[in-house]
């Protein structure tokens, strides 16, 4: 009798493990009728929250993904510092919004294929480009450099601008304002964001936008192990390129 009981419990345990092991987030999304997207809302022109609604290139992409999946989309505001934590704690199904592909993120989650090659550059007040067009000119104690906490901009500054005076901001939208107000001399940013601000604000100027300090790509983050959801996202990205949807959305969001 004891042996029979033991075998029964072993079978139950194996069955439970099997159910857990084959949990499928894509299936859950389809059943619940919506996909949740974590985004910071502070990185124009990819993700911007105005207090009422989200807008930007990756917001449009998220809405496209949801439409193609036959579900709705719900946005969850997060921060750069909490981006991976929110994904790990199931606060959202996918993270989007100008997220740089890098190995540390790949080790902690699944990363989609890349889209849009870009590089690190600077944003300064109009007329100050020649003052800050090299790392050597910026990497000085008297130069105030603004970065958003928890993102790759902060990582870049920590590595290459160790001698500069780093001023850290919780909200990335506050950094261009600080440049305009003279609170910081330089903002560490990426080429699309720098060009966006240069076009939309006459008081700001991009530095090294045609010759950035690094080269990277943006991508989307998906919880570790969710291969079917990752495959679906990559498939939809391929479809966007094939149909020219990505180009339409880039034009709409001043990325071309």
UniProtKB/TrEMBL annotation:
GO terms of molecular function: arogenate dehydratase activity; prephenate dehydratase activity
Signal sequence bounds: 1-23
Name of the protein in question: Cyclohexadienyl dehydratase
Enzyme category, top tier: lyase
Family from the record: Belongs to the bacterial solute-binding protein 3 family.
Alphabetic keyword roster: Lyase, Signal
Ranges where the Solute-binding protein family 3/N-terminal domain occurs: 34-252
Pfam short name (any one): SBP_bac_3
EC number annotated for this UniProt entry: 4.2.1.51, 4.2.1.91
Keyword Cell membrane: no
Gene3D superfamilies: Periplasmic binding protein-like II
Source species: Marinobacterium lacunae
Keyword set includes Signal: yes
Superkingdom, natural source: Bacteria
InterPro entries listed in its UniProt record: Solute-binding_3/MltF_N (IPR001638)
